[in-house]
Design goal:
Layout lengths: L5 H7 L27 H21 L12 H22 L8 H5 L4 H22 L17 E2 L2 E2 L6
Antiparallel strand pairs: 1-2
Helix pairs in contact: 1-3, 2-3, 2-5, 3-5
Length: about 160
């Protein structure tokens, strides 16, 4: 399940479409069209990938994913808008422009995915109260990373080995 549609991405990144439409190259009839950059297939894959990453990030913040639009309509719309914007930014990056193609990011070796993940986690933290208010279910299972470690390789923590 993807948040957002390729048509929504086209409205935000129309510069890279063919008259507002993402197109794949027509291999059945060569020369009949020119593929958009990125292609329809690339945009749809990015929607799936960014949506999946968003679901994983939601889980890291103790929210159940994917967000159900019937249960949490406002959260679903907000997440869809966020995912569509990220994919539109990836369209610009594919064409050597946009926020993921700044000199600062390139010079520091920051990949688009690293920038997306940082932004995504910040966005979820910033909107956590809104998600809860819009009935996005939360899980109560604590992360293993937050559990105290009592045994390390067969000995109690702090115990001396003779």
């Amino acid at each position: 399940m993807s948040y957002g549609t390729q048509e929504q991405v086209a409205t935000m990144a129309s510069t890279w479409t063919n008259n507002g439409i993402w197109e794949n190259l027509n291999t059945e009839y060569p020369g009949t069209n020119e593929a958009s950059n990125p292609t329809l297939d690339e945009v749809e894959v990015w929607l799936d990938q960014v949506s999946a990453q968003f679901n994983v990030a939601l889980g890291s913040h103790a929210f159940v994913a994917p967000i159900n639009p019937a249960v949490s309509p406002n959260a679903y719309k907000a997440v869809s808008q966020y995912v569509v914007q990220i994919v539109a930014d990836l369209c610009s990056y594919k064409n050597s422009s946009g926020r993921f193609f700044t000199e600062k990011l390139v010079e520091n070796g920051v990949t688009p995915m690293a920038a997306i993940l940082k932004d995504m986690n910040n966005w979820i933290e910033m909107n956590a109260d809104g998600f809860a208010a819009d009935n996005v279910p939360q899980i109560s299972v604590p992360s293993i990373r937050k559990q105290p470690i009592f045994r390390v390789i067969g000995k109690l923590k702090g115990e001396k080995v003779e």
